[in-house]
């Protein structure tokens, strides 16, 4: 199980991403803007960060740059998860230190694939009740 920090100012987006991450068996930590995300990254040292871009206080590009330049957090992969879908946004995000870029709306499978490629799969599902484990 990995600890994944989700940084998004939209409660509905945060809830939807959280549901997918928890379904994969990972622990979730959240932050509601870029500045809070940077602080949470320093405090929690998550295994992966899913970062929105368009947020108040500190946008996702700025927060990603801060996290990937900070000695205590630079090893944490940051995945930008955003509605900004221009090639220039993607290039700029990667220049800030992001390891991947996922455009909203995305499918559950797309998010699961990106998470798994950066932290591996979560724990194996428990055997069904009433049956013996193989």
Task: Please indicate the percent range of residues in DSSP E strands (runs of 2 or more).
Answer: 15-25%
Number of strands: 5
Based on CA atoms alone, the radius of gyration comes out at: 15 Å
How many alpha or pi helices?
A: 5
Quaternary status: single chain
CATH architecture grouping: 3-Layer(aba) Sandwich
Extract low-pLDDT stretches.
126-134
User: In the CATH hierarchy, what is the class?
Assistant: Alpha Beta
Might you state the CATH topology name? Rossmann fold
The number of distinct structural domains comes to: 1
Shape: globular
Distance between the termini: 22 Å
Strand order of the largest sheet: 2-1-3-4-5
How would you portray this structure in words?
This protein has helices at residues 11-23, 34-44, 60-69, 87-95, 108-119; strands at 3-7, 27-31, 48-51, 78-82, 100-103. The chain has a single domain, classed as Response regulator (Rossmann fold). The protein contains five helices and five strands, in the order βαβαβαβαβα. With 134 residues, it is α/β, with parallel strands linked by helices. Strand 4, helix 4 (87-95) and strand 5 form a beta-alpha-beta unit. The chain is globular and about 30 Å long. It has a five-stranded parallel beta sheet, sandwiched between helices.
């Amino acid at each position: 199980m990995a600890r994944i920090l989700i940084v998004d100012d939209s409660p509905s987006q945060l809830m939807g991403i959280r549901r997918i991450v928890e379904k994969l068996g990972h622990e979730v930590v959240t932050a509601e803007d870029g500045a809070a995300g940077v602080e949470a990254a320093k405090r929690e040292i998550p295994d992966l960060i899913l970062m929105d871009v368009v947020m108040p206080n500190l946008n996702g590009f700025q927060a990603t740059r801060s996290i990937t330049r900070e000695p205590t957090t630079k090893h944490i992969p940051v995945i930008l998860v955003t509605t900004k879908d221009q090639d220039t946004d993607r290039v700029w995000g990667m220049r800030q230190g992001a390891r991947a870029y996922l455009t909203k709306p995305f499918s559950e499978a797309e998010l699961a694939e990106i998470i798994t490629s950066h932290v591996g799969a979560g724990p194996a599902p428990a055997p069904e009740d009433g049956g013996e484990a193989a």
